[in-house]
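Exercise 4. Each item below gives a protein and its sequence. For each, produce the structure-token representation.

Item: LysR family transcriptional regulator (Maribrevibacterium harenarium).
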Amino acid sequence: MRRYIPSSTALKCFEASVRHLSFTRAAQELHLTQSAVSRQIRNLEEFLSRDLFIRLNKRLVLTSTGAAYYKEVVPLLDSMENASLRMLHREDEKTTLTISSLPTLASFWLMPRLAEFQKQHPQFQIKVRSLDDAAKIDHESIDIILHYGGDHWPRAVSHHLLDEKVIAVCSPNLLGKRDADTMAPESVMDYPLLHLSSRINAWPDWMVAQGMESGSFAGPSFAHFHMLLEAAKHHMGVAILPTIIAEQSLLNGELIAPFGAAVDTPHEYLLSYPADKADLEQVVTFRDWMLNFH
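Answer:
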């Protein structure tokens, strides 16, 4: 059955002409001549048996019919463009693996490992999303969840990923002329203490692990680990950070740990996935690879 649809060229010329209210400027945008655009509009008007523009000397005025048609046509053009873009980006031969992870876990732990996984398993198209709110997890669209222990989801299978260790770190400049090698855990009280707002027990727990008596915990507080890390780098004070976050900055000398070795916390990081996806190739492959990565 023949569809009663005008040419796409005519529709593109119409859309551009409405936006510019000028055949000349529409032609420049579409890399056509002014006469070609004018001809396309005339063909469209004949096709619809309606005037879409009123031509007043060198000015264009959109008719009410033209305005109504424009309102209906533009969403259709947008949908056609989006569908085409999706096809251009589609990789039919690949299976998608969608991972939702805590932002800090993804940035400091997952990314250094993900490149190697992709190299070994190029058949998967990887998508990484930020796990900001457990309540908003869409089990239909997510294959793997990397998260902090204690957060569990119904109908999910979970595996221990790694234990959490934390360490007290600061910028070398914070110590001034003091020798980092001679510092004792108690020396931390000589400096401002930096806090993560969601972990109010971080400093008290660290002090207990060091055999110290609790003191004053006054100091700046930050909403995210990224902020806390940067504050420590910029000499604002001493921060308690998970070793997976502090590791790279300790290796490159941006941070030092003069107040003692890392200590264990009762927390862990988990790898989870919906139970109904337990047999999916991409889930099984990623799970096995990640749990055995060294």
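Check: The two ends are 61 Å apart (CA to CA).
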